[in-house]
Amino acid sequence: xxxxxxxxxxxxxxxxxGGMSTALISPLYPLYQxxxxxxxxxxxxIYVVYMFGALGCLLFLGxxxxxxxxxxxxxxxxxxxxxxxxxxxxxWDINSLLCGRFIVGVAASLLTTSGTGYLLGASEPDSxxxxxxxxxxxxxIGFGLGPLLGxxxxxxxxxxxxxxxxxxxxxxxLALYALLTQVPSIKVAQAGNASHWLKxxxxxxxxxxxxxxxxxxxxxxxxxxxxxxxxLYASMAPLFLEKMVTWHGPFVGGAAIALILFxxxxxxxxxxxxxxxxxxxxxxxxxxxxxxxxxxxLHQGSSLVFVMGVLLAAxxxxxxxxxxxxMVNRLALPxxxxxxxxxxxxxxxxxxxxxxxxMGWIADHWGISTSVTVFCSSIILIAVVQAVFTRxxxxxxAMQE
Length: 401
Description:
2 domains, single chain, mainly alpha, Growth Hormone, Chain: A, 17 helices
């Protein structure tokens, strides 16, 4: 049966569905904690394991689509997403859930890289900037719709740990059928011999020349802080919302995560004309203020303060990621651009993994309020120092002129 819609539409649809599967679980963490009597560190591990899957795929499978074709990797990624989501639905304990989340992490990374590559490869050269923006928006839409869906189901429907995933499984199956029947392959490089295959699977992290090292170190702190702040809302905030807002539950957590993603994407579009150091400095200061409000609100319990903190986190996240990506583009040369961006994203994943594991451990031993206070205080310190260096670093300003 032939479905309506172009290959561009169905690849875009697959990317959105893949994005939905990633963060859909975030507002449901308190329900898993209640169902299985989980420690806070175990909840944070659910989030971290997903990040490990995405990071491992970035490091070892990032160039797979260049070898076997974007369509094949899209099909494989979507199949893995369905398997991982199915295992998440059927999870009977924390270990089975962790397996499902790891698979979803790998699948999400495969879908993002191969989907972006397919859309760019199938487009005319003069439309590449527009298509690049579209792919970024598609990923954001998917990531934002996931927690929003999870929050709605978790708040109002029965058996949320099962029913929340049904729309993704249905839409994913539809997308897989469309990819198999209506999306043609596009040409890629020749497969090469076994040694070439092995080499292509090795991590490809690149560092710039000595003259740009200090600037690149500064740049890598942008995704580290941005991923850390987002990780706070995506993994830990749903566990302590009752301390900050009068009306709490999965929907509030899901809506906050979706709001951060949508506003962050908007900021990356509307702030493109600003100088990089302006975006970087105010991005860091916004996230510092957001974390300060988080600490204050642990004791105040104000819905208004919570909303202000979410908005500042979203604005800061968008401006910081825009500043970092823009500067990598300026520093990189054609031969090392992919490797430098890989290093940039690895810094972000480390920011998502390390601090969340630390927060979980501290929460188990001294309570979640102490954990949040330590995390937010650390982010405030790092972000303020980063803002000062971003404002004053001569190399950063020189490269903009």
